[in-house]
Amino acid sequence: MRRLIIATVFAWAALAQGAAAGPVGERHLRTTTPTAALRDAEHRPDVRVTVWYPAAADAKEERIDLGPPGKPLFLVGAVAPDAAFADARPRPVILLSHGFGGTARMMGWFGTALARDGYVVVAVDHPGNNGMDQMTVPGAMLWWDRAEDLRAALDRVKGDPEIVRTSTSSAWAYPASPQAALPPWSRPAPGST
User: Fold this and answer.
1) What are the residues whose beta carbons fall under 8 Å from the beta carbon of 17, sequence distance 6 or more?
2) Which residues, 6+ apart, have CB-to-CB distance to 12 below 8 Å?
3) Which of 3, 38, 41, 64 makes a 20 to 30 Å CA pair with 129?
4) CA 73, CA 71: separation in Å to the nearest integer?
């Protein structure tokens, strides 16, 4: 228990340290996966992707909230929509998978803190199992397809000429979706990116 408390304190300290860094950019992309249409209530093949990244120093951030306008339920943080990147150097990527019925935006508090620390953070809205769309039985039951959502999102980000090329990847899965973390054999080989 003591180790858990110490680890939590260090994690919060690391996140708080990043708050003094520069602005965070946010971009919204789309990709497709073979089973997205099966899981989505409207049979759309799309997976929505949100990318947070270190933005140029002159980027203007806007507050992002969850909930009704003027009466937010949760203050996510601030981002600069479609801002330029801080620089062109390669940065590590972290993939985020929301929990059951969550959204990428709900993970923004964590994603923006990581972006302030220099990471490119890629999050998805899993089809048929997110807080923005109608929930479906396949979206809830086909949990193994979450890893494919993350893989497709990473491929989409790596193929975007405006997004800084990245060098390494890691996966973070929220409590309801630990199965979404990509296994080591599915990650790109070192030096291949």
Assistant:
1) 117
2) none
3) 64
4) 7
The CATH fold of domain 2-186: Rossmann fold (3.40.50)
Give bridge partners of residue 16 from the DSSP assignment. none
Residue pLDDT, tens place only, 70-85: 898 888 999 999 999 9
d(CA 68, CA 72): 6
Length of the chain: 193
Give the pLDDT of residue 190: 45
Rounded Cα–Cα distance for residues 182 and 132 (Å): 24
pTM here is: 0.77
Share of the chain above pLDDT 70, in %: 74
Could you give the CA distance from residue 93 to residue 96 in angstroms, rounded to a whole number? 10
Considering only residues 167 and 57, tell me which one the structure prediction assigns the higher pLDDT: 57
Output the CA angle 58-62-65, nearest 5 degrees: 155
- Please tell me what DSSP assigns to residue 83: P
**Ramachandran area for residue 113 (φ above 0: left; ψ -120 to 50: alpha; else beta):** alpha
What is residue 26's DSSP assignment?
E
Domain borders along the chain are 2-186
Asked if 83 contacts 160 with a C-beta cutoff of 8 angstroms, the reply is no
Helices (H), ranges, the chain: 2-18, 36-39, 108-116, 137-141, 145-158
